[in-house]
Specification:
Elements lengths: L2 E5 L4 H12 L3 E6 L2 H9 L5 E5 L5 H12 L4 E6 L14 H26 L4 E6 L12 H21 L4 E8 L2 E2 L1 H12 L6 H8 L9 E2 H12 L10 E4 L15
Parallel strand pairs: 1-2, 1-4, 2-3, 4-5, 5-6, 6-9, 7-8
Helix pairs in contact: 1-8, 3-4, 4-5, 6-7
């Protein structure tokens, strides 16, 4: 049986991806720094999901995660979904905040990929890096997050370029707004500012100019990730796929005419 690793697998998109892969017959190792959400994910499919507490930015920890995965079968996929941090303007970003955001968004993915690649090199495999619409756009005062998500696209392309000869593929997914615990926290800021009366109203506010007019559910992102991880996407590598309800096509200067 082929195995997959999902970093940041305790909540949100990572959890949804783990469950999607299980439905396709994968055994899955979910990893993250907090035991409880990982165990909650594993409990949703106890025969197929294993929870391993690890900091994805720690080389020894990720080497151990890969070894645990190989006990379940050949490593066929890695999905990097860990991330977050970095919400301030450039001039207001401290050295500590900068380092923390790059560690959370970039180093976690780099270290996880570096650990997984040797195990994939002989039989091929698929790496799916979860970036963000912030990987191709810039939001107000999100320096560390925006720079980190941009950097993930460079990491994906380098892996695709170097890994092609061994059959390893790499692609990136750039979601827009997705209903997750992390996004809920951002919606609460709008509620606290009095710009929305509830989290649902806040989501409606931030997606009012998105063509589909709503946020995604984590399971919708997971459907795309499942496709990219599996054999149906066997000739797809080096691609950045936006799954944002059409937000990236909107011409901002014409919004007043909409």
């Amino acid at each position: 049986m082929t195995c997959a690793i999902v970093t940041g697998g305790g909540t949100g998109i990572g959890r949804a991806v783990a469950l999607r892969l299980v439905r396709e017959g994968w055994d899955v190792v979910v990893t993250g720094r907090r035991a409880q959400p990982l165990e909650e994910t594993a409990a949703l499919s106890p025969d197929r999901i294993r929870a391993v507490v690890a900091d994805a930015s720690d080389r020894d920890a990720m080497d151990a995660v890969v070894r645990r995965a190989l006990e379940l079968g050949p490593l066929g996929a890695l999905v990097t979904s860990a991330g977050g941090h970095g919400y301030s303007a450039v001039a207001d970003t401290t050295d500590a905040e900068w380092a923390s955001s790059l560690q959370a968004n970039v180093t976690t993915a780099f270290v996880a990929c570096r650990a997984a690649l040797p195990a994939m090199a002989n039989g091929g495999g698929s790496i799916v890096i979860i970036s963000s619409l912030a990987g191709i756009r810039a939001a107000p005062e999100t320096t560390g997050y925006t720079v980190g998500k941009h950097a993930l696209l460079g990491l994906m392309r380098q892996i695709a370029r170097d890994g092609g000869g061994t059959g390893v593929r790499a692609n990136a997914v750039c979601p827009g707004w997705v209903r997750t615990p992390m996004a809920d926290d951002e919606m609460r800021v709008l509620v606290e500012q009095g710009r929305a009366g509830s989290i649902d109203e806040a989501y409606a506010l931030v997606t009012r100019d998105v063509p589909l007019g709503r946020p995604a559910e984590a399971a919708e992102i997971a459907e795309l990730v499942g496709f990219l991880a599996g054999p149906a996407s066997s000739y797809l590598t080096g691609s950045t796929i936006l799954v944002d309800g059409g937000a990236h096509i909107v011409d901002v200067p014409t919004l007043a005419f909409g």
